[in-house]
Write a structure and sequence with these properties.
18% strand, single chain, 330 residues, binds S-adenosylmethionine, binds iron/sulfur cluster, twelve-stranded mixed sheet, two-stranded antiparallel sheet, 14 strands, 11 helices, TIM Barrel
Length: 330
């Protein structure tokens, strides 16, 4: 088992396999002027597999594939097959926008993907277009139904945006009434590629909860799993559950069990840090597994206590976070 310098067990890697995306969610990416990484700057599949194997050897047993949009990267299904063969990797999850995922769902289920998080911020097609700047609502809903028809455990990620989709919160909650899905509301964070955000207007955890309680005062708190990032709730009679992720308030740092690897191989020990070292460079300079292991353990010995400390330490100029979430993976 891996532990950090604050005694937190680390068993979860979030692996962002590409920075490219076919949507342009305004909270994640600017509409234009995106400089995608040149292909040679991306970790290759072989490099990612090597890193995952090494980390699993150290105690990681859960990996989430994310991006950008993972299924935009050619060869993704073969890569997933290879990861699934790694002994000791118990859980392999995917986060996707659902635009390219629908027809792949039966295969994903058959090969052993544990669960899928589908990003969906509204049930209104016009609002979907305004948020994502693309006309893909029907396709994403088809993926939603494919996931359920194939009994794929499914969570819905819904970013709460002041004045943009707050009218959608109750219809989104009610998805869990009709379907066995966990609907999770995520506080909007300033990882939008431009840095422009109005923190004062962000809907925080309690505000989201109070809003839901107005319609469903009988909502019941569930016991959260030890490293859960969401506060979870059940509404009596609902098939699924409702969760709220205080990602901007950073209420879950005390039990955070995750590290991140960006598409260009930067290791992040906190969502809010700006990368602690570049694994790809170490690999391409000929670093052997012992080197990689030593660097990783060293990074975990210096992990920030929480997202506030990580953000404070991230640069000497005190610049706030502004990078696109597509370069981190969420
Ligand atoms: N493209 C895939 C998708 O959208 O599911 C995977 C990558 S996306 C960066 C991962 C998750 O991060 C999504 O659920 C998305 O809603 C969330 N996300 C992106 N930008 C965010 C922001 N500024 N604040 C909160 N969540 C954000
Ligand atoms: Fe693309 Fe996901 Fe970012 Fe939306 S949230 S722009 S789908 S990477």
């Amino acid at each position: 088992m891996l532990y950090d310098n604050h005694g937190r067990p680390i068993n979860y890697l979030r692996l962002a396999v590409t920075d490219r995306c076919n949507l342009r969610c305004f909270y994640c990416m600017p509409e234009e002027g995106i400089d995608y990484l040149p292909r040679k700057e991306l970790l290759t599949y072989e490099e990612m597999e090597r890193v995952v194997k090494l980390m699993v050897g150290l105690g990681i047993n859960k990996v989430r594939i994310t991006g950008g949009e993972p299924f935009l990267r050619k060869g993704m299904m073969e890569f997933l097959e290879r990861l699934l063969q790694i002994e000791g990797l118990d859980i392999l999850n995917i986060t996707t926008n659902g635009t390219l995922t629908g027809r792949l769902v039966p295969k994903l289920k058959a090969m052993g993907i544990t669960s899928v998080n589908l990003s969906l911020d509204t049930l209104d097609p016009q609002r979907f277009f305004e948020i994502t700047r693309r006309d893909s609502f029907d396709t994403v809903m088809q993926t939603f139904h494919e996931l359920l028809e194939n009994d794929m455990p499914t969570k819905i990620n819904c970013v709460v945006m002041n004045g943009r989709n707050t009218d959608d919160l109750i219809p989104m909650v009610e998805l869990a009434k009709d379907y066995p899905v966990d609907v999770r509301f995520i506080e909007e964070m300033p990882f939008n590629g431009s840095g422009a955000s109005d923190k004062n207007h962000a809907w925080a955890y309690l505000q989201i909860l109070e809003h839901i309680k107005l319609k469903y005062p009988n909502i019941v708190k569930l016991e959260d799993a030890p490293s859960s990032t969401s506060f979870n709730y059940q509404i009596p009679g609902f098939k699924g559950s409702v969760g709220i992720i205080a990602a901007y308030s950073r209420l879950f740092c005390g039990t955070c069990n995750r590290i991140r690897l960006t598409p260009q191989g930067m290791l992040k020990t906190c969502l809010y840090d700006d990368g602690v070292f570049n694994l790809k460079n170490l690999i391409r300079e000929g670093g052997d597994d012992e080197h990689l292991k030593t660097a990783l353990l060293e990074a975990l010995r210096n992990r920030a206590k929480d997202g506030f400390e990580a953000e404070e330490k991230r640069n000497q100029f005190g610049l706030p976070v502004s990078e696109s979430m597509a370069t981190i993976g969420g």
